[in-house]
Amino acid sequence: MTEMLEKNESYEGHGPGRPTALAVSQKLLAISTSSHTLLICDHFQNVLFTLSTPSPPTCLSISPPSSHLTAGCSLGEIILWDLTTQNIIKTVTPKVKIPITEVKFVHNPGGVPSVITCNSLGVVNRLNFVPSFLGYSVETDCLLDGTAGCVSGLEVGEGGICLSSKRSTFVVVTEPSIRVVNKWPGGGEEGVLPCLEWRRVFEEGEMGWRLCRGWGEKLQFLKMLKEKDAEYPSFGSSGVYKARGIVRAMTSVGERGLCCCVEAPGGMVLDVVDVVNMFLVSTIDLGGQQPIYAQYPSGAKSYSPALQSCSSTAYLLSNTSLKKVQITPWSSRVDKLIEQGEWLSGLSLCLSHYENAVKSSRSGLRPSTLSRSVSHTISNHPFLSPKQPTPEEEHLSSYLQKYLTLAFENAPPAASSVSHYRMLASVVIEFCVVTQRLDVLYNDIFSKFVDKRQAHTFVDLLEPFVVIDQLKYISPVVMSEFVDYCKLAGDLRRVERCLLHMDVKILDFDSVLKLLRKNKLYTALLHIYTSGLDDFVTPLQMLFEEIFDSAAESEDVGAFEKRRKEEEEEQRNNKSWFRRKEYKLVEGTFEFFGGMALLYAKLCLMGERWPRGGELGGGAEGRVRREIMTLLCEERYLVSKNPQNRRELKGYRTLTFPYIRSALLLDARAALDLFAVYLEESNEQEQEQEQEQEQEQEQEADEEEAKPKDPKEASVDGKRIVEVLVAVFEGGDASSRSYFKSFVADMLEKKRLETPAELTHETLQWLAANETSSNQDRLVRVLNALPPGSYRRDEAIAAVKGHNRAEIILFKGRDGEESKFGEVIQCYLADEDPEYTVEVFNFINGGLRLFNSNEKVFKETVLSYFDELVKVDTRKAVGLASSFMSDNVAEITRKLSDDPHVLYLFMQHVVEEQILLDKFGSVDKQLYVELMCEFDRNSVYQFLKAKEGQGFYDPAEALAVCKSYSITDASAYLLEIGGDADSALELMLRKLENDLVLVKTRLRTQAFEDSGEEKAELELVLGAALDLCQRNDQRNEAGSEERSEGCAFYFIVLDRIIQMKTFLRLDDEVEGGGGASKPGGMEKILHGLLQQLVLRIVSSGSSVALPYIVDKISMAGNKLGEFREIISTILESYRYEIKVFKAAEAVMVGSVDELVEEKKKLEVKGRKGEGEGVSFGSGGKAKERLKAGWGRRGRRIVGGSGGFRAEGGGVKKLRLRGGAKIEAAAYVGSVQY
Q: Where are the compositionally biased (Basic and acidic residues) regions (predicted)?
């Protein structure tokens, strides 16, 4: 058939035409062509006969017994043939010629041929061809009238007729009446049609049906449920499979396969999917061939006519070929591999089939997880379930048995058989573990290895499967052989490793526990006791027995403690006593068993399992914590009830609290951490759960009297823990007690313990001794967490003495204790952290209530510390005085007079902030001026200027003080306001000359860049002198003669500065000369002073007229030298500025004129109502056009690539080429810029 199609493709307008549809039955194949021809073939693709149709057929269907054939045509004809006689039974010709898209045979209880048809408009009919005397008549039942739209999918099966629209799939039954029994919502990509298929499957021992739907990239499955006495079937979803691409068509193949035509990214492929387990069985690449398809009016394509199947064979029709896909059962493929000698490949295929098919089908019959019941036994273990294996599982096992028999029969000689048997054992173990046939592994297969004397090889290869958690059970016989093998190899740890990964509830406890105790394999022993027997105390007791024995065997208790003390003393000398010493854990030693006991106890107290962690579950956490802590706090050694396990009472067994004492000796930190974990984990919720469990147990007792509670079963509380630890650490060395005090401090901080007052005081004293005064955080946290009555205040204060923050907490007092106000202030002030010390003001502000309104005592207390408060924060101290001590300013000044600098700081803030200033008398103000001269001489001049005429100071007294402190600028200012301006100026100039001499001297030993302070001082002195000149200049503005006299002050200063170059002998200095100052530096300084002077003369604040400046320059002749150029340059700058101002004025006038003109234009437009608009084209050319839109509220012009458009209201924006922008807002009679 493929050759015929390829040959037919070579014809252009001749031949039978292109293939259009395919139909398959048990005996025949039918292919329709575009030239009105039907080719009827057998399965060997031999053409048996041909049929013809009046128009090109679009769909075909062959009845299941291959007795009838029906075809739907492009002009709407439906034709029924009798394939036995090759005659047409009936032709149904419609009135309206609409293409038929689907035609399917459907079962008819009357035995007459019946088909379901669907046309491109979505009309679905059932046609019954009823025989009569005149031939066949057609009975038509309309199932769907086409109002729902196009039907994109149609499939007929035992579950009913399945129809798909664009959004949903419907299942319709026709018997006993037509009814929709299920609506299956869906939806895929636009232009992608769904494809449907009914799939018959055998699952869980019974036959069932699945409705399969491919929509987009999803394969969805709907399981048909047959309920007893139900008239119609029901459906339930059974999963979704994600395909590699868009599913275009599908058909049933094999026992439970679904062959799908998938449009993958690389081209069309055929994927075979298992509909029960939803996995990909195989893939076939079509090699770029395109299957035939039918195209709907919407443009969507349906590939269903190209893919049909019969039993395990699928056919795919394209324009040039007919592909045949044969689905071979797994057993046939395995048999073929075995015939070729590929045993390992065949067994691998068996495992793949088990994983993909058998395992999932057995998931409902065989549990996948282990039961955690205490009564768990071998008989109900999941790998040894009493349920009989399925025939398919037996078939898989038979392949392994055949392979094993053949491998044993063909084993090589003994000399080279080791590798052969190891390979054989690994194969059979993996096969049985994967298929869960441990009954076969430990019975038939293991006995064959024993017969061949290869039992050790077999058990050696079991370990890897156990360690990776694939094998959870080993039979007693095999376990015994495994232990013997490990003993011979000298590595019993392998047994322990395996036991940690096995299900310990099904082991023979007596034999296994004896083995573990005998060989001291405590890791596995702890695991078996806790996970298998739910016993957590017994294994810990066994560990302590080993601890006691190892300590007694190695050395007596006293010698061991002495060695440990020496080690800790060595650590303290190395300043690392707080660090835990690292010990080499040698098996069988005191440290080894002790470390294991500490780790095990901690896991139990945390509610986790040994050794991997994980929650205990089942509400056992509270019980386990209580039992473990009870054992640790036992005062006496517990003698075993079993006489065989009793030990001699010696060593640690004779001491009080032997269990916790030995743990503390090993590692005090780790042992104390056990109590910390216990106290943190024991909460109220666990206690409530324990009470509920106890109540349930009491209710379950049948008429049994309640037994008195054993005191040993009571929960160990914090009080009992303190008693035990105090007794253990009493008389201990300083190092061990340090660990204890640290533990108590942590528990007090977390509020887990309530300790006696004596222990609290000792803990506070230890904290104070081990924390510096600058780091008191832990001590403070502990004090804040202490409950009332847990300490005596005076003793606690003595314990923390020297730690200010801790003392503050105790001095403040709590719960009715009297606050020691003064001591608290003193502690605040003594703190080294300024940010913390400033908090004293917050305390003082709220402190008056502590004195019960006794202001006198409060003020006296604050006054006694006021000098220190000013040093901490002057602003807050002044605020404090203003709030509480405004009437005691005189007392404050007397208190602060002992430290003049502190008094100055206080008075300075009072004066600057105008707070309490009215409380200062003239003496106080004069004192403030004197203190300023002493401590802030650079501020005196500005202060006197600011306070002039306010009556704050007496000028004569102030002048005397300033002269006594040699404050030149302030003295000169006071002389000036006293009427002696000449003396004032002379004083300032002499000061300037003296400072220049000092600067010159200093420049001999330092660089010019380092003389910044000296230059600033010179500029201040010159600035004060120029201020004097300016003030006198302003006073003499009345007449020209007086004015010239006022200007003379500036020129005096100018002359003196020019003369200073000669005075300083700068011309005689030689650059680079030894011992001389650097002339470049002094010249720069003089140049800067002269520039400062000239800028002041020509500034706007100066009233010196230009003619006076010109006359001075002319009179000086060439004596001014370089200064003439400076002054001329400054004057030229002013001339240029005048020109700039005139130009700016002209521009401003022009802009105002333009704005006024624009405003008039906009007003005119606003009055027109409907006027002109302006449009700019995309080419940048302006064109005028009439445009409506300039109304009363204005319109907006918006630009774009095609020009501007006018919009209503708002701001007008015109954007021109080049980025220019005009914005205006138009309103009636006004314009806004």
A: 706-715
Query: 135: part of which helix (H) or strand (E)?
Result: strand 135-145
870 φ/ψ sector (left φ>0, alpha ψ -120 to 50, else beta): alpha
What tokens were used for 932?
A: 């300023």
Please name the residues in contact with 776: beta carbons below 8 A apart, sequence gap of 6 or more.
Answer: 803, 804, 805, 806
Beta bridge partners of 1206: 1197
**Torsion of Cα atoms, 422 then 426 then 432 then 433, to 10°:** 140
- What whole-number distance in Å separates Cα of residue 390 and Cα of residue 697? 44
Of 522, 537, 642, 514, nearest in space to 592 by CA: 522
Q: What is the predicted pLDDT for the residue at 366?
A: 37
Q: Do 89 and 81 touch, CB atoms closer than 8 A?
A: yes
Percent of the chain whose predicted confidence (pLDDT) is above 70? 77
Output the six-digit token pair for 1020.
């201040």
User: What's the confidence (pLDDT) of residue 698?
Assistant: 59
Q: CB–CB of 219/260 below 8 Å?
A: yes
Residue ranges of alpha helices (H) inside 317-366 are 330-339, 343-353, 359-361
> Cis link prior to 131 (omega < 30° from 0)?
no
Name the amino acid, one letter, at 683.
N
Distances, alpha carbon 618 to alpha carbons 377, 614, 689, in Å: 20, 12, 11
Q: What is the mean pLDDT of the chain?
A: 78
Per DSSP, 647 falls in state -
CB-based contact 201:210 (threshold 8 Å):
yes
Taking Cα atoms as reference points, which of 473, 304, 484, 321 lies closest to residue 384?
473
> Is beta strand 160-164 parallel, antiparallel or unpaired with respect to 279-285?
unpaired
Which stretches of 373-443 are DSSP H helices?
A: 391-409, 418-435, 438-440
DSSP calls for 563-612:
HHHHHHHHHHHTT-TTSPPP----TTSHHHHHHHHHHHHHHHHTTB-TTT
* Rounded CA separation 317/1230 (Å): 83
Torsion of CA 493, 499, 501, 504, to 10 degrees: -170
Q: Is the pTM of this model over 0.70?
A: no
Residues 858-885: tens digit of each pLDDT = 888 889 999 999 999 999 999 888 888 8
C-alpha torsion sign, points 1204, 1205, 1206, 1207: negative
Phi, psi of 390 (to 5 degrees): -70, 160
Q: Say yes or no to pLDDT of 379 above 60.
A: no
The residue type of 120 is S
Which one is predicted more confidently, 759 or 110?
759
Q: In this structure, what DSSP letter does residue 832 have?
A: S
pLDDT of residue 687: 53
CA dihedral (378, 381, 384, 389) positive or negative: positive
Q: What is the DSSP string of 746-770?
A: HHHHTT-----HHHHHHHHHHHHHH
**What mean pLDDT do residues 1204-1216 have?**
39
1005, two tokens: 């030993």
Q: 3-state class of 822 per DSSP?
A: helix
CA–CA distances in Å: residue 1024 to residues 503, 595, 948, 967, 1213: 99, 83, 15, 12, 57
Fill in the DSSP letter of residue 1094.
H
Q: Closest by alpha carbon to 786, among 811, 750, 823?
A: 750
**DSSP letter, residue 318:** B
Tell me the C-alpha distance between 639 and 627, whole Å. 17
What is the reported pLDDT for 1226? 34
| CA 932/CA 927 separation, integer angstroms | 9
